[in-house]
Amino acid sequence: MRLAAFWKNPLAGIRARFRAAPPTRGSYWSSTDIARFFYRQCLDREPEPDALRYWAGRLDAGEDLPAVYEEIRTCPEATTRLETSRHVGGRSLQTGEVVRFLYRQCLDREPEPDVLPYWARRLQTLEDLQAVYREIRTSPEAVALRGPGRLSPSLDGFNEAEIVDRFHQLYYAEKDGWPKNTLIGYPILQCPFDLYLYQEVISNIRPACVVQTGVASGGSLLYFACLLDLTGIEESVPVIGVDIRLSSLAKTLTHPRIRLIEGNSIDSDIVAEIKRMVCRSRGLVALDSDHSQSHVAEELRIYGELVAVGSYLVAEDTNINGHPAGIGFGPGPFEAVNEFLGQDTRFVRDDALWRRNKLSFHQFGWLKRIRE
After folding, report:
1. Which three-class secondary structure state does DSSP give residue 159?
2. Range with the lowest mean pLDDT among 110-119, 202-211, 299-308?
3. Residue 368 — φ and ψ, nearest 5°?
4. Residue ranges matching CATH 3.40.50.150 in the chain
5. Using one digit for the tens of pLDDT, what is the confidence trace for 288-338?
6. CA dist., res. 372 & res. 363, Å (int)
7. pLDDT tens, position by position, 42-61
8. Is 265 helix (H, G, I), strand (E, B) or coil?
């Protein structure tokens, strides 16, 4: 069955799994797996041991799945929880938070004070969250903001943008997924789509330097250095990484292009040292350090000067704070980019670069310099 149908009806997903795999040991969800799933779905917690045995026993006795699910879903605890909160992106949120999240995601702004209670009341009456989400997302303001092309209905009532955003949220939140990717033994905290875009950009613009703020374990720095080698760019072109505290693993990087600096990326002495290293050349800059709006805004202002015309200033992780991932982070890179573009007309968003992949961890943050 398709993902959209599973999101609308989790029971159908379980039934489909049962149909695909006969009930033999190890090939299907056990009754305890199903009981745990129902508790997480309806109560946002694990069942007590006695309750787990009780519900698993009823399922083992052949009781109908929808009947068990409905009994858990309508129990007093679940009803009370739903009256005051909704489950969004893996978290239980108060209805007011949900409305604010939907407005930020669909309209890139906060709801008006007199509008917030209206939507909150609708959610408190247990109105379908997807219906409220679609109503806000297909409003004239949202259509004008994002363009009608991304709002065409598809896949059992879910439009393309909703499916992409939901996948983005699930993928980003998977702690055992992309955060465990490595490059030649060094963790590389990037979406594979973005790594592909970086190699395309470096191949096309052939930067005179690459600067990254926020080094972590050093995987991205090593990736940039290897790309410069593969594209035949002069060995003198440096890859400079600055971090407020360099990790022990990053300090083991030995690639001859890599230069490491420890310190605050917006400190004047650190900036002066970077400028000395690049010797007045300009190239590609990736910002991946402190993700608070104020810090990123200052980095954009400072490091924009190191970007060549035709090259990119990349504000990484613009997807957080509900754009659409990292719900509840607070104002960060996305908000800093909006602030920066309102002040500096030398840069524009190059959304066409990442949209062909449907998503980017840095979506709306690939900023291309178009003039001196």
Report:
1. strand
2. 110-119
3. -100, 130
4. 179-369
5. 999 999 999 999 999 999 999 999 999 999 999 889 888 888 899 999 999
6. 24
7. 777 888 988 888 988 888 88
8. coil
- Residue 78: count other Cβ atoms within 10 Å of its Cβ: 18
234 DSSP 8-state letter? -
Among residues 98, 168, 192, 328, the alpha carbon closest in space to that of 160 is found at: 168
| φ and ψ at residue 149, rounded to 5 degrees | -60, -30
CA of residue 171 relative to chain centroid, distance? 8
Give the residue carrying structure tokens 């009806």: 9
DSSP state string for 35-73:
HHHHHHHHHSSPPPHHHHHHHHHHHHTT--HHHHHHHHH
Q: Which residues 6+ apart lie within 8 Å of 365 measured at CB?
A: 314, 315, 316, 317, 318, 333, 334, 337, 349
Look at residues 365, 313, 311 and name the one whose alpha carbon lies nearest to residue 338: 365
Query: How many residues appear in the chain?
Result: 372
3-state secondary structure of 347: strand
Paired sense of beta strands 347-349 and 366-369, if any: antiparallel
- Identify the top-confidence range among 8-12, 40-44, 265-269: 265-269
Q: Which of 248, 262, 261, 197 is nearest to 224 (CA)?
A: 197
Distance CA 29, CA 323 (A): 34
**Whether the Cβ atoms of residue 315 and residue 337 lie closer than 8 Å to each other:** yes
Phi (first) and psi of residue 163, to 5 degrees:
-65, -45
Structure tokens at 45: 């917690």
How much is the pLDDT for 5? 37
Helix, strand, coil proportions of the chain in percent (round to 5)? 50, 10, 40
Structurally, at CATH architecture level, domain 179-369 sits in 3-Layer(aba) Sandwich (3.40)
CB 311 within 8 A of CB 367: no
Tell me how far apart the alpha carbons of residues 312 and 6 are, in angstroms, rounded to a whole number. Answer: 39
Spatial separation of the C-alpha atoms in residues 48 and 356, rounded to whole Å: 46
93, 100 contact by CB (below 8 A): no
Cα 45 from Cα 43, distance rounded (Å): 5
**Maximum Cα interatomic distance, the chain, rounded to a whole number of Å:** 75
From CA 88, how far away is CA 98, in angstroms rounded? 7
- Work out the mean pLDDT of the chain and round it to a whole number: 83
Q: For the CA atoms of the chain, what is the radius of gyration?
A: 24
